[in-house]
Amino acid sequence: MERALTTSCALCDATATVSPVAVVPLETSVDLCAVCATGVVDGPQDGPFWQYLHEAIWSSDPAVQVLAWRLLKGLPESPWARDLLDMAYLAPDVLAWAEAGFVTAEEALVHRDSNGAVLASGDTVVLIKDLPVKGAGFTAKRGTAVRNISLVMDNPAQIEGRVDNQRIVILTKFVKKS
Questions:
Q1: pTM for the full model?
Q2: Would you say 68 and 13 are in contact if contact means Cβ atoms under 8 Å apart?
């Protein structure tokens, strides 16, 4: 069982009860408070709390740099996080370590067609079944090519595309990659 103790968090420097958190894939751990540990495990939610990463990314401890880099990469919609990543320098071996254990939300959700082929944004797919389009009053016919699809980021079972000049959501189980 991991032992919790009161000291300062390696990332945010808050005095709190900290617990060791593994920095994969190396066998290293860093003492983090509950909020930082949740951000590392579940991904950070944008907010003012993560501004402390301005200091953490420049830490002399490579494990802290790795965690700060991963948290910053987990905030792609935040302009300040993108700017900080552009300015930050990690030694090549530290950067390789950070990238080795980082999985983006896009990589975690894999969209597959009815045959199991991986779909990507911009692909062309073909409908394998007639699909009534709710609210549009037409049926998308089997064999219709849907070009330049978009992936629904929070649902790997859905894609978006244009059929008869209408932007529609299509279930991936009704398409095959062409």
A1: 0.58
A2: no
